[in-house]
Amino acid sequence: xxxxxxxxxxxxxxxxxxxxxxxxxxxxxxxxxxxxxxxxxxxxxxxxxxxxxxxxxxxxxxxxxxxxxxxxxxxxxxxxxxxxxxxxxxxxxxxxxxxxxxxxxxxxxxxxxxxxxxxxxxxxxxxxxxxxxxxxxxxxxxxxxxxxxxxxxxxxxxxxxxxxxxxxxxxxxxxxxxxxxxxxxxxxxxxxxxxxxxxxxxxxxxxxxxxxxxxxxxxxxxxxxxxxxxxxxxxxxxxxxxxxxxxxxxxxxxxxxxxxxxxxxxxxxxxxxxxxxxxxxxxxxxxxxxxxxxxxxxxxxxxxxxxxxxxxxxx
Amino acid sequence: xxxxxxxxxxxxxxxxxxxxxxxxxxxxxxxxxxxxxxxxxxxxxxxxxxxxxxxxxxxxxxxxxxxxxxxxxxxxxxxxxxxxxxxxxxxxxxxxxxxxxxxxxxxxxxxxxxxxxxxxxxxxxxxxxxxxxxxxxxxxxxxxxxxxxxxxxxxxxxxxxxxxxxxxxxxxxxxxxxxxxxxxxxxxxxxxxxxxxxxxxxxxxxxxxxxxxxxxxxxxxxxxxxxxxxxxxxxxxxxxxxxxxxxxxxxxxxxxxxxxxxxxxxxxxxxxxxxxxxxxxxxxxxxxxxxxxxxxxxxxxxxxxxxxxxxxxxxxxxxxxxxxxxxxx
Lengths: 315, 329
Hints:
By secondary structure, chain A is mainly alpha-helical. Helices cover 68% and strands 2% of the residues of chain A. Chain A contains 14 helices and 2 strands; from the N terminus they run αααααααββααααααα. In chain A, helix 5 runs parallel beside helix 14 (281-308). Residues 8-17 of chain A have low confidence and may be disordered. In chain B, helix 3 (110-121) packs across helix 4 (126-139) and helix 6 (158-170) packs parallel to helix 7 (188-205).
């Protein structure tokens, strides 16, 4: 009897008191239930592995090596994905092209989020004239069709950035250029989202409380309000990677993007439209990789959106 | 005794789409070192706005401080730049707010929020700041403070959060603490704990307190002096016992009569004040209480009574009529 009471008492103290879940744990639980998002994350991981671990099997010079005697060879044992119009191995090129495409996606989003957060946060927090000026600029940028902007900027700025060598590899200057152009033409939506978040968040008591302890405006913006709006930013940034990869594919397909011999999934498609029937392996493999990447990023983004949305309380 | 904060003729307005709101209309008051001043009045009478104005914490626009001076240790706070005010808020004057559920940032740990001002104002390194935060949490009565520094606000109850807010406010040893209805959102037992906590700390560190409230019961327990506000005016100022024993302004009298009391018969209805407070959208003209006042005379409609000395020393009231003798002042 006595030991029974004692046992219940111990349970109360130690076992019934489950530690409250942190925001991250709650989000992870919701994310796991989103099957497509988990699959998307898995596929994306495999694609990264493909692009970066694949480099262990082929050298970059092999990927850029052309042998015109082998041009437009159908997939064979020695060239599983076939060869392109000047006899380069498509498998090796999709590996190196994947690196560039994925990196362009990530770095363009880095620029996009930095610009978007900066513009949106300052406009939303300060309001008034500052807000007006920044938002009119944002709207002006939004009014120009994105493809048009991309093409004009790519055409206008091509060749302005020299090739550079980073970690023993030479990158075409056009890669950096494309990153800047894509980042610089896609931050507007994020700026508007961040501004809307700031407009409502700055009215919170905790902002007044922070000001009342003498916290400077910059600290309030970046250390107090920004962490509260991280969910929509993460979602937009995730989907932004997919958009950036697609944008790169557009302009590279038009021959204005990353210049060969540096391969990207986009510029591998350049010219493939002439061989739609006769050499489908030219467009099939890079096209499939772009499709898989964009699709899995979008599923992943949906999953993150549901996971981070405080209104979806289904745990 | 020297005045710590001396506010004279403070006027604050808000320019809203509906028109100009005359929120504070010439408020003058002072707080001495180590003294507790209670500010009472109904919702929307300008209690909070006057204090927020002193700290330049009202949003401009729509707000505008149209006049007045607020001398803190001889320096006019209303003439200071935002940068200069940042150095005042926290180490000199700190403030705690009504709703502890929303005054803490939900995504930052308690430790981060307490140590932030220590690191920015006092330039402490992380270790020293953490140690100080620990001591502060202990001082405000949070058990196992070392475990709780890394907790988030949602892991605390309302009363605990208000304690954390107080710890944050006290972190840089302010000389003046402005408490804006800190107990209104809490239940009664927690209220008394918070009141007790603030009075204990006040006595420990010899800090002045401005306690904004509409709870006259709390006032009696902690204040040295009381100012009564009505429609943006200070209508009466007195020592706490003096105010309860000899209220001079008809509004104060009515307010005290509207209080439920344990020593009165229960079957009697509480006396309420007829009418409603004046719209703050109309530029004040004459005494703000005139329409609800049983002692009103012709002069009350045209001229706003200044705050003048009543019977006792330190007891001031803004009324043309001496309610005891029914004679004009």
